[in-house]
Queue: 2 jobs
Job 1
Amino acid sequence: MAKREDQKQDRDQQILSRLASIQHKVDSIEQTNAFALRADKEKHEQSLRDIFRNGKRRAQVYLAANGARSVQEIADHVKMKRPNVSAQLKALSIEGILEIAYSSGGRDYWGKKPLDHTIRITRFLCDEFFLNSDGTEKRAKK
């Protein structure tokens, strides 16, 4: 019986080692993709300008979608009406940069896709529209 336990542990350890190796390869691929995407910074910034051509309100909705806010909470946070926020969330989802992070109690909680970090969308929008990373407007320094 002890021998069978040892074999099971050895097999489990092999599986864990293989999973760690796979995770390392996935991380490596993601880093390579990030460098490749960042090399085309100007092209991606133009795409972002096209996506956010409707201005600051869309950028605020995007930035407020932190994965922990529902549609109504985003609306309250950026002081917009819920239907307007819903329309912006849908448009940003179609563009492939926002997703429903999870649903609970009939509410959808929206968050940014990993692409945000890769091509630095949040940083771009904060600079472009003079916003904080949560979508609120920056206050002018006195």
Note: The first strand starts at residue 69 and ends at 70.
Job 2
Amino acid sequence: MFRFKGVSVKIKDSVHDFISLTDNKELWEEVLNTSERNAVLIAGAAFDTQLERLLKKFLVQGASTSNKIAESSVFASKINLCYSLGLLSEDERHDLNLLRDIRNAFAHNIFDCDFNNSQVDAAIKNLVFPRKANPTPDKVDLRVCFNIGMIILDVFLKERLNVIQPIQELKSMKFVNK
């Protein structure tokens, strides 16, 4: 549990307990109603967790290496691995990488970092999904644009998690002596 501005938020430790960012009312309220930094860091952590769940569900079940790969990979590696395995579309990969860039800007700039920071502003305006939802993102508040992007990504990744099937372990080949 952590406290932010007097609000207590429980975050379950198990990746299996986390469904999606927008399905977790407390986390989603944090994204919507607290600082931009807090919104970005929570969204980044939530999508990192969703990608881990995708990998765990897709990779060979019961293989110790599958869990190690999913759990030990950093956010960028999870994005690239999920894309390479066909678990993410190009647009999803693009927007997740922009979220990673935005998250890194907030994490590494203690001062003078908000949605009006030139690097963050440009990244938010380059998110694919908000532009598809609203072709004139320059006329939309950056916070609204960010939230729209996170909602769309969240819906797509949650649905993907519901439909993917694990890959099957290859069985050893049997050789026949003639």
Note: The beta strands are 2-4, 7-9.
